[in-house]
Amino acid sequence: MAHPDLTSHHVNYLIWRYLQESGHGEAAIQLQRAWNHDPQSLPFAPYIKTHALVSLVQKGLQYYELEHSIDREGNATSFTPSSYFFGPAPLEQETSKVQHGPGEVAVGTDQAPVSPASKVVAREGGDSVTNGHLTAEAAAAAQPTPTNVKKTRKSDRSEANGDEGPMEVDSNGVTHPEVKAAAAVENLPFTAEVTVDGDGDVSMVGIRPELQDQEPPAPPPPPPPPTFTLTTGHSVGVQITPAKAADLGPDTALLEVAGADHVTRTLWRPNDPTVVVAAGDSFCTLWRLSSTAPPVQEKLIENNGDRTCVSAVSWEPNGHKLAVATYNDMRGSITMYDVFGNAVDLLPEVPRMITGLHWADSGSKLIVVASDSRISELALWDDSLRPDEFPSPQVIDGTVLDLCWLGSSQVYACGPGTVYQCDVDSSVHISKTFASSNPERVWSFIRCASVGSSPVAVAASSASAALWVPTHDLHLENAHEGEITAIEIKPNREQSSDAQNLFVASSSTDDTVKVWQINLESKHFDCIHQLSLGPSSPALAASFSPDSYALAAASKDNLFIWNAQRGGTPMAAWKAPASEERKRNHEPSGLVNGHNGTTEPAPDRSLAWDTDGKRLAFGFGNQLAIVNLQR
């Protein structure tokens, strides 16, 4: 029976296994993600033995030496160290000082193992192998004078295994589609006995002429599945058994900020890691932090029993002003504060609740979203002009749940059944409407980015756990088993290498954060990381660091940080100190009886990175954790 052609899948799998067995687990993960997300699903995987690559290379070196010991007419030639595959210089002894017992393989060193049954017996007190080859004396002792030798070549044939073409194996400058061990044994001119060791290696010592025309020994039965050094984890790729995640507790400061209320929003002042804002339904507080003094609190809005509700908060891009929207007596108003907590401006009132304040990434433009149960209005405020009233707003039937800027002249908004593309000049006006296939589906979150010269909007439905890219007509149903709580686009992408790819993180009450690679050309979603926060730990918020290096996610009282590229096990974690805070405030705990049980509303959690990506503000319950990541 002919052996299947060698493909890059075979070679990659052997390299992947070698990297695991030699302790280079992280390199194995990188190879796996660049080549095949599930190498163990390949049909030949269960038959590959431990240390297969090293054993195969050793056999190849022996074959190489035998091939170079005869000329084309079959006459013996001198095989000198200058002909060695790796050259004549022996490997430095310092690189292989670790001693191994009989039959052990020197994994993790540069010394190739030799199967015990296939070794040429060394002279007492001397070495018989140098740089992977027999020494000249040992080679001469092991090789009788050859007689006539015939050379065979296997004809080219189509691929038999995998989806790639045959890989040609080069030997002594002559390219062969396949090198077969049985053919090599059949054509060797030696007088010796054939033995097969426990690894299936053929001992090429003393082959008798009368055995040359006989069938080679039957191969051993398929081995049992090998024991692996890596195990499958929550990430799509395999993971190394991890070191414990770094504990961020010693570098975390806890602030009591909300009294009997809950923190729902946290945000850092742009370009200033010393000023952070925490807000809830009935309060808004500005904190100035110092490494040498206690934090200073400035209360902007307090719960005075007048039923004033804080409905939106947002920093102006330069950090000069903080816009705070409140709602009371059926009216919405916006007050501007400076960094010291002083009110410096008051914008015109609107006759409904202000649910969103969205500054453009640069400049002085602010879009104010005001909604009630019937209609929503998108109004533009230019803080450099400060008019006496808002210009005519864009009116939308129904509720606008989220909005994001793309550049300085375009925004996208989402709501029930629809995503709106709007142009922004002296006002806001709809330029295109995207209707989803299900008009009843509520799109809760939207994020935007430019991929090349193409605008891309990604929307998420919380209750349906669905993702939608309306600008490219891409849909993904059942992205999670629970409700989606947030989505974020990975910033600072490499446009040159990912010209058609967008990376999006989605968090969910199913206890996971997933990182999606969205290929806009093939219109395909690929989950490249599935990150677990642990059982009964819903992911209530997630955020990429500004430089895209890290991904943070928060549960009820836990915070986890992963390397955004590698995924796998968290690099660092923080757990809130044990307290009676949740009982005291009657805060809902989220999931009950697992994903199939009855549910309560998930508690509010908020995460915000400072501009440098060195601090995280984590709002939970009535507290604010300032997590210092600089160490």
From TrEMBL:
SUPFAM superfamilies in alphabetical order: WD40 repeat-like (SSF50978)
A Pfam entry, by short name: LisH
Organism name: Aspergillus saccharolyticus JOP 1030-1
Subcellular location: Nucleus
GO molecular function: transcription corepressor activity
Superkingdom as given in the UniProt entry: Eukaryota
One GO term (biological process): regulation of transcription by RNA polymerase II
Protein known as: WD40 repeat-like protein
Region described as Disordered: 137-174, 211-233, 577-608
Major localisation: nucleus
Keywords: Nucleus, Repeat, WD repeat
A GO term from the CC aspect: Set3 complex
Compositionally skewed regions (Basic and acidic residues) per UniProt: 578-587
Compositional bias (Pro residues): 216-227
PROSITE patterns linked: WD_REPEATS_2
WD repeats: 477-519
InterPro entries (alphabetical): Ebi-like, LisH, WD40/YVTN_repeat-like_dom_sf, WD40_repeat_dom_sf, WD40_rpt
